[in-house]
Amino acid sequence: MGRRGVVLLGATGSIGHNSLRVIRANSDRLKLVGIAGGSRVEPLAAIAREFGVKHVTLFDQNACHDAKKSGLFDPDVALGTGIEGLNHLATLPEADVVVVAVVGTMGLHPTLAAIEADKEIALASKEVLVLAGKFVMAAAKAKGVQVLPVDSEHNAIFQCLNGAPNHEVARIILTASGGPFRNHTLEQMAGITPEEAVKHPNWSMGTKITVDSSTMANKGLELIEARWLFGMEPNRIRVVVHPQSIIHSMVEYVDGSILAQLSPPSMTFAIQHVLLYPERRAGVDQTLNFEDSMNLEFNPPDLLRFPCLRLAREAMQAAGVAPAVFNAANEVAVDAFLKKRISYLGIGDLIDHTLQKSDNFEPTNLEEVLDIDRSARRISNDLITEHES
Ligand SMILES: NC(=O)c1ccc[n+]([C@@H]2O[C@H](COP(=O)([O-])OP(=O)(O)OC[C@H]3O[C@@H](n4cnc5c(N)ncnc54)[C@H](OP(=O)(O)O)[C@@H]3O)[C@@H](O)[C@H]2O)c1
User: Above pLDDT 70, what percent of the chain?
Assistant: First the structure.
């Protein structure tokens, strides 16, 4: 069996780190052929050296300029930058699969470029489908390209569905850890600081997704991601809070049977499943040990304390460009919260007001979605400036 060429967009991040662990442990099956990062030169150079990668992109132009002068990369490494650099990696002839794990919607264009070039997609960046799921999934269908979910919940659903026809499925049930503030009162939530919100009890992840998990906006984004990945109507996608993060999601079939996928909370399980799919091999992390006692707990989500989840569901049900507005407003809100420009509860308020101020319509092309993304960000930023003055 030959080795699969892997391109890793977001190589220096949390998903990137876990992807490298999987690639390292399966070097007889997987070969890293291209890597991209945002602006951190040294960790990217270390990965290039260890894996002998010859195609590297540093999105930030200044960082790329510094990298060229740094001597940290071998002279035969091709260093690219910007969106062209990402698209170049996504379409490398030696790539079979492209892992999209950059924060936010930056992964959209490389994902589309990779689909166009017949590469399999290992999708971690859920925001890509929230922004433009209709167009990404249509492009993948037209090219016969698989979009395999790296997000642990969607990977769990993918495994539990195992190709079952849509009419045999009653609903899919996404589990949510509930984040670090699941037992906080609204009064306690009002005073949450960025330092508190960037710590997750179960998962070690990048900053943005950790804050999203704490507000449950992340689960909201996942609702919309599931809608596109599995072609499931909004009212057939449920959320249940499961604080232990052992069951990663479930599928309820029409006959009442519910299948679940379990593993300890490490992303390597989902990443390896996708990169080696459909082959199964020993994983890189410890599996569950049923010799130890374990309690699994389930609670309904509280939409009053976690309005971001309610707003995401409403946006998904409204359809059209509402999910794109939700996503843009959330990105602006999280950034503003981390910079202490708005309060923790201000995140939900900002998304709510941005949705109220934005038109909703069914987009007919990608450009319309990108326009809405820009205008929603403008509206959110104006609202923050108004609030500060
Ligand atoms: N972490 C998880 O467990 C997890 C689980 C499910 C889904 N996801 C999704 O996976 C994506 C990545 O999350 P993460 O937690 O891995 O984030 P992260 O730790 O913050 O890493 C982000 C990565 O993206 C790179 N990057 C940032 N801007 C870029 C740009 N414009 N072009 C190219 N690369 C860029 C960063 O490079 P620098 O190091 O140079 O900044 C870094 O390698 C998110 O969409 C998240 O929702 C993550």
Answer: 100
Pinpoint the alpha helices (H) of 144-199. 152-161, 186-190, 194-197
Residue 128 included in any domain: yes
Lowest-confidence segment of 14-18, 102-106, 363-367 by average pLDDT: 102-106
Domain count, the chain: 1
- The pair of structure tokens assigned to 359 is 């038109």
Cα-to-centroid distance, 290 and ligand 1 (Å): 33
Integer Cα distance of 178 and 87 in angstroms = 36
Q: Tens digits of per-residue pLDDT, 27-60?
A: 999 999 999 999 999 999 999 999 999 999 999 9
In a domain, residue 247? The reply is: no
Query: What distances in angstroms separate CA 64 from CA 81, 154, 281, one per listed residue?
Result: 6, 34, 37
Q: What does residue 330 show for φ and ψ, rounded to 5 degrees?
A: -65, -40
Please report how many Cα atoms fall inside a 13 Å half-sphere around the Cα of residue 226, on the Cβ side: 33
- The two tokens of residue 45 are 């150079």
What is the phi/psi pair of residue 81, to 5°? -145, 170
Q: Is the pLDDT of residue 201 over 90?
A: no
Amino acid 314: pLDDT: 98
pLDDT confidence of 229, banded at 50, 70, 90? Answer: very high
* Residue 111 burial by Cβ neighbours in a 10 Å radius (0-12, 13-18, 19+): buried
> Left if phi > 0, otherwise alpha if psi is -120 to 50, otherwise beta: which for 43?
alpha
For residue 18, what is the domain's CATH number?
Answer: 3.40.50.720
SS3 (DSSP) at 87: helix
Closest CA to 271 of 98, 150, 156: 150
User: Ligand 1 pocket: which residues have CB below 6 Å?
Assistant: 9-16, 36-40, 59, 86, 101-103, 106, 124-127, 151, 203, 205-207, 209, 267
Q: Which residue of 8, 9, 15 sits with most ligand 1 atoms within 8 Å of its CB, as the best mutation to test the pocket?
A: 15
